[in-house]
Amino acid sequence: MNKGWTGEFRNRMEQYRAANPGASDMVEASVKIRVSSGCFHREHSPQAYPLIDKAVAKAKKQAPLIHLEEHESGPEILVYMTLTAAGLQFAKSIIDLIVAILRARSEGIRKGDSPRDPLKLILRRTNKTGDCVEEEVLTVESTDSIVEVEIEEALTKAGEALLKKTK
């Protein structure tokens, strides 16, 4: 990661924490849905984003601390995860939102959105010294079927690895 990007990410996470203080059993993180090449934002995915907007509105009703950042490379979801004895646990609303974004992109492509490159699901956060760390969770092709259980398992595994890196 380049220094400019890490500084922006660190600031974004600090602003999120300040605006949304979590409980002691919560860990803040970013779930980035990054296109492997090209763009994945409103301008290039006009069919997908109305579906994404609906999914975000629904998710915020269930978990008001969810925040979506839009980037040319794809959406980023800032969230709090629950820290348990077994590791990190993702709320169902977070998993549902990620699944909805992945499905919206596939639907958008079917309706004419141009970007078709694979998406990478990435989990990231900052450690106590402010360093940015990330774990690639999985790669999703636009034609892949989206299975919630697989995404949740992959995120949980990545979350455990990320937690070890940020202690």
Describe the structure.
It is a single chain. Helices cover 41% and strands 25% of the residues. By secondary structure, it is of the alpha+beta class. The protein has one domain (3-165). Strands 1, 2, 3, 4, 5 and 6 form a six-stranded antiparallel β-sheet that branches. α2 packs antiparallel against α3 (92-110). The longest helix has 19 residues, at 92-110.
Notable traits:
167 residues; alpha+beta; six-stranded antiparallel sheet; 4 helices
Helices and strands in order:
Elements: H1 3-19, E1 26-35, H2 48-62, E2 67-69, E3 76-84, E4 87-89, H3 92-110, E5 119-126, E6 132-140, H4 148-165
Antiparallel strand pairs: 1-3, 1-5, 2-3, 3-4, 5-6
Helix pairs in contact: 2-3
Give a brief outline of the structure.
The chain has one domain. It is built from four helices and six strands; from the N terminus they run αβαβββαββα.
Number of helical stretches of at least 4 residues: 4
Terminal CA distance reads 20 Å
> Secondary-structure element order, as H and E?
HEHEEEHEEH
Shape: globular
Largest sheet: 6 strands, antiparallel
Radius of gyration: 15 Å
Query: How much β-strand is present in the residues?
Result: 25-35%
What's the mean pLDDT score? 87
Share of helix among residues? 40-55%
Total DSSP E strands: 6
Low-pLDDT runs of 5+ residues are none
Structural category is: alpha+beta
Count of distinct structural domains: 1
